[in-house]
Write a structure and sequence with these properties.
Largest interface: A-B, 34 and 36 residues
Order of helices and strands of chain A: HHEEHHHHHHHHHHHHHHHHHH
Number of helices of chain B: 4
CATH topology of chain B: Helix Hairpins
Helix content of chain A: over 70%
Largest sheet of chain B: none
Number of strands of chain A: 2
Number of domains of chain B: 1
Number of strands of chain B: 0
CATH class of chain B: Mainly Alpha
Oligomer: heterodimer
Chain lengths: 487, 125
């Protein structure tokens, strides 16, 4: 049987090996990175089959939980590991032709660190270990945002770093309080012992955790770093950050709330926060002229929608939220990757300069439209099914508040529809003579976008399978963790 | 005099007050100061405060380090080693973040010629 720990160890080890390897063979680092990502896809897909028989529990270095650090690869962890490795692999293919300047070996090493960190965050069963992986993710993304070393990137990176560090500080305070109150750091053990502590400290711990992880998860008052960081980073990194990094922070937050701290009473607050985030993101995206800023704000909106679905406190809600995470990972990666070469070719970030680009770069423009329509929720794309599931799940809860929130979500969708269609119409109007460049994106950059596009277009074929997997994830999140079930 | 004080305030409370004082002062600097270097110093202070808090979590008055060098030591006479291990990790992470932040500030200063947050306005803060 394959060990889930390989999902973390292999990219981590490759990341450390790359700088040494590049001394021997300059330019070989990209192939090493591709190999590591491919390996992770293989391991994750094999685990996806295995995990049907129950979550795989891995004890590290022979110290049994709750004393040692352990991994728990359930459906949640494996599905996310697969999303991370697939998106990571496709973006790596794109990077080969897109990332030309700078320290290439550092780029690929940090890229793999980001993959290892996010995978670790979803697999670990130890809360301090979660903090360490969280920091790996944070530090590698701070550096990658500033990869181009222009003043915008540096400024966005510092802003991200300052807010991120405040988040980590709060997270660490929460860990200190957990250890003081319960004397354990193992999530399953915390889940067993949380009932024994007073509700005031329980609330304090949860609020600190939500604020700490919420910075990375881009919840409403804490997300002012996101539009700058996602817009100033290279397009490949924006695709990663929007595609899965914020989602991982969010799903870990939700997992802790449900299955570790059993704090279902706070979920109403999170649902309202989600819809607020959604509305603010969509309204802000509506006003943007810079295409990457519009996409970044749209990510905030989508994160809000996902959080709303995940905090409905029903299995159907979490299933729909997972579905939307998968759709968002594919669609937003398409949008960032497709716009990457548009920006490079036209030399402009403003989408009004893209008039007629569909004539010059037909495949990219078509797939951009596909991604945009899927995010809006137009049938038959994947986004239609996820959005309808979210709305049905919210309506099924029967609470009046949720009906109001659905109305707000629909309002957000309309705004989202307007600005995305505005961009798409600009791209498809005009004759193409306005643009001076010739030749579209290279094949190596179009291929990953096409593959992601196929997921979004033909995704409905796999609808029953996606539903079963997402249902298992939802059941896992809702269930309380306990130490007894691990052994 | 010394004894009276020691009875009034236990060592734990001094440590807790010191750590929360550091955290709050640090965060106050981050939120109010305009100078990037000072903001980073503020972040570092907050981190130090959290580290002290974690060490305090494992502190037991009068107990010794958990090293099995003397056969007569029983586990009840030792402090909890886990928080100290955590703090080591946390210090290393904090060091890395601070170093990275300072490097970024140096680069930004070379590009923009300013350390003032309100003057560097390429993006909307």
């Amino acid at each position: 049987m394959v060990n889930p720990i390989l999902l973390i160890v292999v990219p981590l080890a490759t990341a450390f090996f790359i700088p040494i390897f590049s001394l021997i063979w300059k330019g070989g680092s990209k192939y090493l990175a591709l190999l590591a990502a491919l390996f992770n896809i293989a391991v994750a897909s094999e685990l996806l089959v295995k995990v049907k028989n129950g979550p795989i529990h891995v004890t590290i270095a022979g110290y049994k939980a709750p004393i040692g650090i352990d991994l728990l690869a359930g459906h949640l962890g494996v599905v996310f590991a697969l999303i991370i490795s697939v998106i990571g692999f496709l973006v790596l293919i794109y990077s080969i032709s897109y990332i030309k300047g700078g320290w290439l070996d550092r780029y690929y090493a940090l890229f793999l660190l980001l993959l290892a960190g996010t995978t670790g965050m979803v697999l670990t069963n130890d809360i301090f270990n979660l903090f360490v992986f969280f920091e790996i993710v944070c530090i590698s993304s701070y550096i990658l945002v500033a990869y181009n070393q222009d003043s915008h990137g540096l400024e966005a990176s510092i802003k991200y770093l300052i807010l991120g560090s405040i988040g980590s500080t709060l997270f660490l305070i929460a860990i200190a309080l957990i250890y003081m109150k319960m004397g354990t750091l193992n999530m399953a053990d915390i889940s067993d012992k949380i009932g024994g502590i007073d509700s005031a400290s329980r609330m304090l711990i949860i609020v600190l955790l939500i604020t700490g992880l919420g910075v990375e998860g881009a919840l409403f008052p804490l997300n002012s770093w996101l539009p700058d960081a996602h817009a100033s980073a290279p397009s490949t990194i924006s695709a990663l950050l929007s595609g899965f990094v914020i989602e991982v922070a969010l799903i870990v937050l939700v997992k802790l709330t449900y299955s570790v701290f059993h704090a279902t009473s706070i979920l109403v607050f999170l649902a309202v926060l989600g819809v607020t985030t959604l509305l603010i993101g969509e309204f802000a995206a509506f006003r943007q002229e810079n295409i990457k800023r519009a996409l970044a704000y749209s990510s905030i909106g989508q994160i809000g929608l996902i959080l709303f679905a995940l905090s409905l406190n029903t299995e159907a809600g979490i299933r729909a939220g997972m579905f939307q995470i998968i759709n968002h990972a594919a669609s937003k990666s398409i949008l960032f990757l497709a716009s990457g070469y548009m920006i490079l070719k036209t030399g402009s970030y403003l989408y009004k300069d893209y008039r007629g680009i569909a004539k010059k770069m037909p495949v990219s423009a078509f797939l951009f439209a596909v991604g945009a329509l899927s995010l809006i929720g137009v049938p038959p794309f994947l986004g239609f099914f996820s959005k309808i599931q979210i709305i049905m799940a919210a309506a099924a809860t029967g609470s009046v508040l949720n009906l109001w929130l659905i109305a707000a979500v629909l309002l957000g969708t309309i705004i989202e529809g307007i600005y995305f269609l505005k961009i798409v119409i600009v791209m498809f109007s005009g004759t193409g003579e306005e643009l001076s460049f010739s030749g579209g994106a290279p094949f190596g950059a179009v291929l990953p976008i096409i593959l992601l596009g196929l997921v979004v277009i033909a995704g409905f074929v796999f609808l029953p399978y996606l539903n079963t997997v997402n249902t298992s994830v939802a059941q896992e999140i809702v269930k309380h963790l306990s130490l007894a079930q691990l052994f | 005099m010394h004894n009276i004080l020691a009875n009034l305030v236990s060592v734990e409370w001094i440590i807790y007050i010191a750590s929360f004082g550091l955290i709050l002062t640090g965060l106050f600097i981050v939120f109010t100061d305009k100078n990037l270097i000072k903001i980073i110093i503020g972040l570092d202070m907050a981190e130090t405060g959290v580290n002290i808090l974690i060490v305090a979590a494992g502190y037991i008055k009068g107990n010794t380090a958990p090293i099995f060098s003397k056969a007569s030591l029983t586990p009840a006479q030792m402090t909890d080693p886990v928080p100290q291990a955590l703090v080591l990790t946390s210090i290393v992470i904090g060091f890395g973040v601070t170093a990275l932040a300072l490097a970024l500030v140096v680069r930004l200063y070379q590009k923009t010629g300013s350390l003032d947050v309100s003057k560097i306005r390429g993006l909307k803060w």
